[in-house]
Amino acid sequence: MKISMAPIVSAFSQAGGLGCLASAGMQIDDLRQQIRQVRQQTDAPFAVNIAWTVPNSIEIFQVLLEEEIGFIISSAGNPEKNLEQLKSVGVKVFQVVADVSQAKRAEAQGLDAVITKGYESGGLNSLEAVATLPLVPMVVDAISIPVIAAGGIGDGRSMAAAMALGAEGVLMGTRFLTSDESPVHIDIKKALLNAKDTDTVSVSFKNFSARFWKNKKSSSIIGHEPLWDLATDLNQEIDADSQLVGAGQIVGLDTAVMPVAEIIQQVNTTGKTSGIDFSSGGSMSLLNEKHKPDVFLQDMKRVTNLVITMRGLPQPIISKVRGVAYVVGVNIALNGDFVLASHDAQFCQVFINLGAILDGGGTFLLPRLVGMVKARELAMLGDVVKGREAESLGLIYKSTADEDLDLAVESLAIELAKKPCLAMSLIKEGLNKSFDMSLNEAMNWEAVHQTVALQSPEHKKRVKAFLAKGHKKRN
Q1: 454-470 pLDDT, tens per residue?
Q2: Phi–psi pair at 259, nearest 5 degrees
Q3: CA distance 369 to 387
Q4: What is the pLDDT of residues 366-418, one digit of tens each?
Q5: Which of 247, 300, 375, 440 is the most buried (most CB within 10 A)?
Q6: Which residue has the higher pLDDT, 473 or 436?
Q7: What value does the mean pLDDT take over residues 6-11?
Q8: Distances from the Cα of 133 to the Cα of 119, 139, 142, 171, 390, angstroms
Q9: CA pair distance 466, 464, nearest whole angstrom
Q10: Which of 190, 187, 157, 182 is nearest to 256 (CA)?
Q11: Are 12 and 19 within 8 A, CB to CB?
């Protein structure tokens, strides 16, 4: 059942996500080979999943330390015994949880985020699994570390719904089973594309449940069998009805085999099919509520985590604003590395008109974008700035006609994706640090990190291509 391997993982990370290599069922030498293959195919970050119940989980753990993996997704158990070692080398650990108590435990142990795995999701689930819709907001209310939603996420609409529930990201698996890069045999992909909403089945085992695509094989399982003995090779040309395929309830949303990058792009835009754009705004109704100080502080911690994460991500972030960006959302949008908006989009630091102060990083951000004089005007008068004016002020990167906005965002994303990943991430890091450094500090930072950039394979490859191109022109 080896699906999340190097080709699909590298494609996912290269397209701007965080690809995750599945280590379960893998021999140690194979795991090392897969990790190195991902690194040959992309410079972007990726994660590795450890399922602590597999027999060689400790050996897998040691390999991840030796290979200096930066992100680990922990599941089917808890990394408590190994956490100190992980944190000492700066590894970010995301824990898969099935209920509020597990999420609280993960936070108490100092883990970096939780992934709430709802009952709808494919593969292994808890025997007492809760559906994503009630689980996410309950976990969000119970902890302060980031929450990532998994289970029932298949397009932009469900991703937007998860974020409306308080999630700061989503994990998707089933949607990518039918991608070009997925090693699943084409006959199984075709069968999954023809699946209906009711074409999955949840089977209860002794200590867990598991959700599969409904066929003869999965319908014959009674739950007493060792799960690993049931696994089949989905790459082989065998009758699809005899294969055991883990799949979530969103399987009916798959419509075509396409590259991972196109699926991600589609997910990022399909919210529009219901008249929704991913919006940078909070609910104005919240301003009429009497916030308890501790609840409000918890909300603001989530905003802080989001903004810091945005600025710390190695890839550039594009913010698209088509409508109104008010309250905390305006500054979340402006924290993007490139902000594109329609001519009629509205940016407003409305806080002063509501008897409030800037948040979402606005106090830090505005003077750096437009200078102190203009920042005072925007913050203290609270006037609306439309897209064209926002561009002329340097508040945003570009404004376009509404009908051209999606294409402008897509074109910019394609152009950025062509740039070398390591150099891009270092440039972003340096610019974000620039206002806090003296000239001497900035030049020392440049010297150190330029040395890193010049040692990278992408630099050597691009210099070679550049020189070859120049040589051809001279001749």
Answers
A1: 988 888 888 888 887 76
A2: -65, 155
A3: 15
A4: 999 999 999 999 999 988 899 999 999 999 999 999 999 999 999 999 888 88
A5: 247
A6: 436
A7: 90
A8: 10, 11, 15, 14, 37
A9: 5
A10: 190
A11: yes
Q: Is the pTM value of this prediction over 0.70?
A: no
Phi/psi region, residue 321 (left: phi>0; alpha: psi -120 to 50; beta: rest), is: beta
CA distances, 352 to each of 33, 300, 348, 358, 387 (Å): 57, 18, 10, 8, 21
Where, residue-wise, is CATH 3.20.20.70 in the chain? 6-180+256-274
CATH number of 284-417: 3.90.226.10
Residue that the structure tokens 């394979």 belong to? 457
Q: Distance between alpha carbon 42 and the CA centroid of its chain, in Å?
A: 16
Please, where in the chain does CATH 1.10.12 lie?
421-474
Name, in order, each residue with C-beta under 8 angstroms of 131's C-beta and a sequence gap of 6 or more: 118, 119, 120, 151, 152
Please provide the size of the chain in residues. Answer: 475
6-180+256-274, CATH topology level: TIM Barrel (3.20.20)
Closest C-alpha among 36, 1, 17 to residue 266:
17
